[in-house]
Amino acid sequence: MEIVTPFHPPAVLSVDGIGFTYKNGREVFRNFSLTVKKREFVALLGPSGCGKSTMLNLLSGFLKPTAGRVCINGQPVFPEMQALGYVFQTPNLFPWLSVEDNVCFGLKMAGKNAVEQREKARHYLSLVGLEAVARDLPHQLSGGMRQRVALARTLALEPDILLMDEPFAALDAITRIQMNEELLRLWSELSQTIIFITHDIDEAVFLADRVVVLGLPPNGIDSEILIDLPRPRDRHKVRSTARFADYGDQLMHRIGAITQLRQSASLNHSGARQNAGP
Predict the structure, then answer these.
(1) What is the torsion angle, in degrees rounded to the nearest 10, for the CA atoms of residue 92, residue 97, residue 103 and residue 105?
(2) pTM confidence score
(3) Residue 90 maps to a domain
(4) For 139, which DSSP code?
(5) What is the tally of structural domains in the chain?
(6) What residues does the ABC transporter domain cover (predicted)?
């Protein structure tokens, strides 16, 4: 009888036993490990102060761990890796450049010639539905449109992995939902790996294959939930299901427990200081 070994996609990103402590002595992570597979969509969720943004800076190589290592496709990570793309909460567009020129800028820095810059810029602006405003300046666009330009600028570099730090947090609720759907459409078409930081539970459930909940520093991962919802995901159908609500309840319970632990720890610390006296 032939034994068939199940196929497991290789990890495109691996975090192996990292620790990180800021120079002021604040320890954020201790022996933290995480693997993300090719084409996986992983949301990092947690209350403020749990280390989400610090983790993103470690994953990108902007910060170096004090122990362990972070690797992309088996290689130690560094910020200029071609495999990495970044999308932040603010679009950070050049106000004096047109939409198309903003997208071209990253391609120019990557050494692409003028013809390739224009071709790629127009292609990715078309993907995000902004080809009609290619010659406009950023101030002429809505907040959601500016964030689409930032997304097109990153996608034009064709990275394997997108690191997204609360990219839609500054948008109004309706635009944010629209950008969630737009991101899923692009991810389905381009098949990149995405690590998406958010504090919004519904957003995490709607977008991700897996939600990783970060606990109190330096404990790292509190819990993980696999999101078994069909794709493609339609916001009207998915968000009205009992399963969507159940995932949200599970995550809300974990975030609530972490917040309660923090409050208890803070009260204990305050009490200890008072008992110690002057």
Answers:
(1) -90
(2) 0.89
(3) no
(4) G
(5) 2
(6) 13-241
